[in-house]
Amino acid sequence: MKVKTISASSAHELLKTDPAAVLVCGYEKEDDFRKNDLEGAISLSEFRRRLDSIPKDENVIFYCACPHDETATKQAKDFFRQGFINAQVLQGGVEAWKGAGYALVGQGT
Prior knowledge:
The chain contains five helices and five strands; from the N terminus they run βαβαβαβαβα. The protein has helices spanning 8-17, 30-35, 44-50, 70-81, 93-99; strands spanning 4-6, 22-25, 41-42, 60-63, 87-90.
């Protein structure tokens, strides 16, 4: 199964224009989320807490800091299988986000 990807600039634009879109850090550990907290993102545990209130057709963008987006891809596939038909991966993850000039929480740009 091939998961959809989205560029940092497209993801940033989508998050600005679609207030219901969700940006989710793919890491299980809260420490890893805090180290890679992109502006507007929620942790994986927060996403799981909100599952019942997020429509299955909502845009959900997973990201990580892995060289080939492995963690984000795994999460996107898992949640796609659970019915989230618009689960996708931020291509290039944290580095692509920073490279596009977007902020990490607490770290500036």
